[in-house]
Structure formats: C-alpha cells, structure tokens
Structure prediction request, 381 residues.
Amino acid sequence: MGSGSRASVVKIAAGTYHSLALKTDGSVVAWGNNDYGQTTVPTGAQSGVVSIAAGGNNSLALKTDGSVVAWGNNGSGQTTVPTGAQSGVVSIAAGGYHSLALKTDGSVVAWGANSWGQTTVPTGAQSGVVAIAAGGYHSLALKSDGSVVTWGNNGYGQTTVPTGAQSGVVAIAAGWFRSLALKSDGSVVAWGDNRYGQTTVPTGAQSGVVAIAAGGDHSLALKSDGSVVAWGKNDYGQTTVPTGAQSGVAAIAAGEDHSLALKTDGSVVAWGNNGYGQMNVPANIASPVKAIRIAGGGTHSLALKTDGSVVAWGNNGSGQTTAPTGAQSGVVAIAAGSNHSMALKTDGSVVAWGYNVYGQTTVPTGAQSGVVAISAGGGHS
Prediction:
C-alpha cells in the first residue's frame, strides 16, 4: 500500500457469504464469496464512502455526495440504482434481493425484488422516516415518533408489529423472516420466525443495549459496556461470541450465518461460517484508513471507511462484493441484502450492485436524490 496516513476500520457489514469494511479514508475493503462480484470493489467505492451495506450477494456504498454505488448480483435489479437514489441519500439497507434508500426528506426509495411487496413503499413510510432495515423479503422503517412501519412478506408474522415496538423505538434490524427493534430504555423487542430461538430475547439483551443486528437466523446486541450478546441458530458458531468480541466493541453486523464486530481500535473480529472466506478479515482492514460502519448480507460483508469508500468481501457470485466506481468515494451509509449491496452517497443518491433478478439494484427515479437512509432486504431495497 501507499505511504499515506494510517487509517483503520470505522464501519462493517455482513452479507450472506461476504463481508465489507469501511475505512477512515472513505475506501471500502471486501472479502469472502465473489461469485457475483460482490467483493470486487468498483472505483466508485474506493474513496468518499461514508456508509456501507451488504445484501445476499451484493454490496452498497453511500458516498459523501449522497449518491449510492451498488455492485454484485443484479438478478433482481438490486444493484441498478434508480434515479431517486442517485442523490440526497442519507442511509442505505440491503436485503435478500432488494435495496432501500432513505432520503433527506424522510421518504424511502425501494428497488429490486417485489414478489412480496417488499419494494412497494406504503404511505406510512413516504415521510417522517429516520431509519430503514431490509430483511429477506420484507422491509422496515422507523418513524421520527418512535413507531415502526413494516411491509412485505408476513409468513412468520415479521411485519406484524407487536405492542412493544409500536412506540419508543430508536433502532431497527431485519433478518430473513424476523424483525428487531431497540427501545429507548435499552431493551430489545423481536418478532417473526422463532424456529431457532432468534426472536426469544435473552436476559442479557433485555437492558443496556445500544445497537442491534439481525443475521439469517441469528441476532446480535451490542451492550453499553462494549460486549456482544448473540442468540438464535448456532450451527456455524455464529452466536458463540469469541473472546475478542466480549469487550471493546463499537459496532456489530450479522450475515447469513456469520457475525462481525468492529472494535474501538478499528480492528474487526469475525466468527461463524467461513465457507466463502467471509471471516478472513483482510490484513489491510485497519490500515491505512479506518472502517466506521459495517453491514452483513446473506453471504457477504461490507465495511464503510472514513474516506467514504466501501470494502466488500465474501460471496461474489452476483457481483455483490465488486463495488462499482460510484461506491468508491463519497459514501456515507451502506446496506447488504442476501445477494446485493447498497451505498448511500453524500449527495443523497444511491448506488446498488449485485443480484438484480428482481430489480433490487435498479435504483428508481425517486431514490436517485434526496435519500437520507437505505436498507436492503432479501430480494428488495
């Protein structure tokens, strides 16, 4: 690497079988499955990235100009960023096969797979939204009043918001068939698929929680003391928190069956399934630029660096870790779906890449500017 100033990781993201890291210099590092190009970071995500997201097999990077860069699987259009997400975006999210972008005006732009209505944004999410999340086939929006709006597949009750999540919510997360909400009192509410205990919140996550993440069938909670609590499916050890993630953690991300933790020193700890190298954190992850955000897709991971670039790694079967030029700089937020990725740029635009069979990377006109947040579901945005 060059002799420029040292930078470390500031954000991380986990896709189905790939991982992303955002460094302090705004560049993105990606690793893991690259069958769809999801870990091949495009020029646009090599600088100026401020946030990242990892979907099933795609990656997203949000640039400082508010635009989004997407790469990886585009089978559902999840990496074809629509006009509405090409500027004014403040946050991004990547689901299984769809992508989401939150605009500066509080509206949501969605694209990609829509088989369950996951990209058909309801009236309640067209204004006043402050955060977004994308699951396998459903989407979530957190409103400024602390309420949650959901749409898409409800086969496991994942879009039926329980009483406990109808007010006082400060953060949201979505897995394949479940939803999570972090309350202002530090407790976690979970609903939807519970076949592996992923919505049965353990005692350790009932207070003192400051951040949440939802993987395929497992959940993570970051505590105020810097420790991580994990529950749900553990067939690959994805909920067996290693020593390195038991303290000093600043951010968390969950993929299909792997987990990531960003430490306060800018290093990344990974555990769980490593079938596609999604846990093989690149040696340059903490240098020369720090990652500031992370996101986990189905089998890939994303990291947003302080220089606004996106790093992606893991499964690249749909190009979800091959960050396009638009996600190599100016990114402020990221999201990862099952096989696609998203990036929100500083200008409020959205870049999406990866699997696009359902149009989840084809950013619609409404998400090409003025977007303030993004989210990616299994096959929609």
